[in-house]
Design goal:
Two copies of one chain form a homodimer. Chain A is of the alpha/beta class. The first copy, chain A, is globular. Chain A is 27% helix and 26% strand. Chain A has an eight-stranded mixed sheet with strand order 1-2-17-3-4-5-6-7. In chain A, strands 10-11-12-13-16 form a five-stranded mixed sheet. Chain A has one domain: Carbon-nitrogen hydrolase (Nitrilase/N-carbamoyl-D-aminoacid amidohydrolase, 4-Layer Sandwich), CATH 3.60.110.10. The interface between A and B is large, with 97 and 96 residues. Chains A, B: It comes from Psylliodes chrysocephalus.
Chain lengths: 392, 392
């Protein structure tokens, strides 16, 4: 069955179930921890004016006796490149900036404290094309590039932390390119950056052609709105990468993506939610939308030998998962939009205390296992009977 | 919203969607890699005679040029204790053995090569009760206990590997109790055992009261039907435990459980499927069903201070996930039943080669991270600006 390019979302189809059945299905698939979030008229008007989709929700929370709730609002922005990829780079970027400004305004009027873009948000996701030019030209300095400078202004004006994942060009070090998340705090200051650790070399997307494996570890950025980490796109497939951010204390992990294909869509909510519950933090997963047309043919993600002239469909569906596994509804599979979600960071510790996963983590066991595995003389722990054939 | 004790399964509710919508929802939630599996008339007659539920399916596979398909059939058995818990231990066990023999016969006629029970299958799952007696009396020797001996006969007669998770009593070592999976090969020989690594100390279930943390590592058992590992119940919450089995070469991991509660149900398919795709193996998740009534009150898993006199509802829903994320339909939430699934072990390597996750795993990075984390002077990698308040 081919991907349905028209399908809005699973959620929209489930609405066709009888109410009682929908309630049951929703409880098991989405949890029942999410309610509607009221937003200002001004915010809703902007949504209409800018013709964006809006999903809004708040996660339930329990009050503690000694800590007040630490409520945070996040805004996730999913978008497509609004002009053909053959347009000049300057023109494409300008269009992306305009869209970004609209989305940030909506988020600000919606009271968002942290805003996160999809991966490589200010450019086409052209790593499937196999071409170097013009795509590499989109790379910019992380700390002083045009994109970062524009966002610093927006962050300061709107008192909002902004996470911007771009291609980074390091002019001081071999002109290298990295896939980098820049974290700008709500005072407009670049707090730091994370260079993506895991880079796919898969059939459709040989990304080491474009940029290097990062060596910034698993940094957690302490902001006024909580401790945040970033897991960039393909890194979502690595439980160890998610774990690294947890061990450094993340309370929210943003996962900006550019994901296509049936298999990726099948796993879209599985991986992010598993990360949230295994690590006791919120996960905000953002995916781009639309289909990008390249000049050259390329091989698709499913390993089929059929060639296409497009990226495949980025399936959107951006959403938030809480550390207890409850999830928000998603943005659609097809529309540019903003998801605004409110939640209490205190839930992270509450879930940890209740489930006790950390108490039984036995990290030294795994430290030793990984030490053995990475030694040159490693032999796996396999139990077998010799000469089984003679035993009957 | 309280758990609906009557609800058969999510799958049964989704069937109420219009056919075209169901197809779309199914593709995104379950994948489209599973077809019906034809079984013999003899098998189906036994299912009717023994009044069991049957779910049967086969996973799609791709032929390779140099390796023939390595098709394996697994049978997962979910059950409830068929008599009141106040019955004498001998009586309860006898009833469980009878049920097991029925299920093994069905599996054998269905051509199953590997049969797996739920956790602590030959006893009530009474670890929530807080009482020591009579539950500890259910513990047996792993290699020479009555349960293992009965299963050795069944395994030999039916040419079937059997995985039996029981409470193990080690009479030679402090009379200790372990939560142990015994692996019996298809010649009736005890291939070995795995003692559960992670033991929950959560509100409703303080299981270290009953048994010890295991130290058998992450063994993989090489059988004639593939290399198998066992992840017991609560271990499913630990990505590192799943990883350990992958690093030792597992192609199928069985996850026998006794799981209750809304939160566990919300995560039931998330955790097992994430493990399958992150590690490139099949996961067979088995959960018990029914409600077990204890004499004493206890505190429930949700952290509510309400006391009950029962275990809560074990929600069944046993299922299989392939390494590409496609999943089988589940057994129901409420009925004793057998799931028979056929799949090709070659898919494990195919998925690894296609996705390339292992190529980019960077295990030394995580070895070093865990070494740092477990050192006494560990400081998390946190980036923050000092005196942020003065920067505006």
């Amino acid at each position: 069955m081919s991907l349905d390019k028209e399908l809005d979302s699973v959620e929209s189809l489930l609405q066709k179930l009888p109410e009682k059945d929908l309630k049951q299905v929703w409880r098991i698939l989405y949890g029942d921890g999410v309610r509607d979030l009221e937003l200002s008229e001004k915010c809703l008007k902007l949504v209409t004016r800018y013709k964006m989709e809006l999903v809004k929700c708040k996660f339930s929370y329990k009050e503690e006796q000694l800590r007040p709730p630490r409520l945070v609002r996040v805004a996730l922005f999913q978008q497509k490149v609004p002009v053909p990829l053959t347009f000049p780079i300057y023109k494409v970027k300008t269009e992306m900036y305009t869209l970004a400004m609209d989305a940030v305004k909506i988020a600000a009027k919606g009271g968002a404290n942290i805003f996160c873009f999809q991966q490589a948000w200010n450019m086409p996701y052209a790593f499937c094309s196999g071409e170097s030019m013009p795509w590499s030209e989109y790379a910019e300095k992380a700390e002083e590039g045009a994109t970062t400078r524009i966002l610093q202004t927006l962050a300061l004006e709107n008192n909002m932390v902004i996470i911007s994942t771009i291609l980074e060009r390091d002019e001081n070090f071999e002109e290298r390119i990295w896939n980098t998340a820049v974290v700008i705090d709500n005072h407009g200051i670049v707090l730091g950056k994370h260079q993506r650790n895991h880079v796919p070399k898969v059939e459709c997307s040989n990304e080491p052609t474009y940029y290097c494996e990062g060596n910034t570890g698993h940094p957690v950025f302490e902001t006024e709105f909580g401790k945040i980490g970033i897991n960039i796109c393909y890194e979502r497939h690595y439980p160890l990468n998610w774990l690294g951010l947890a061990l450094n204390g993340a309370e929210i992990v943003f996962n900006p993506c550019g994901a296509i294909g049936q298999e990726a869509e099948l796993l879209w909510t599985v991986e992010a939610r598993n990360a949230a519950v295994a690590n006791g933090y919120y996960v905000c997963a953002i995916n781009r939308i639309g289909m990008e047309i390249y000049e050259h043919e390329y091989e698709d993600e499913q390993g089929n030998l059929v060639h296409h002239e497009d990226s495949g469909l980025f399936f959107g569906s951006s959403f938030v998962s809480a550390p207890n596994g409850s999830r928000s509804p998603g943005l659609s599979r097809t529309k540019t939009g903003v998801l605004i979600a409110e939640f209490d960071l205190n839930l992270c510790r509450q879930v940890k205390d209740r489930k006790g996963l950390e108490l039984m983590h036995r990290l030294p066991l795994y430290r030793d296992l990984l030490s053995k595995i990475t030694a040159t003389n490693f032999k796996p722990q396999v139990i077998k009977k010799h000469c089984q054939c003679q035993t009957t």
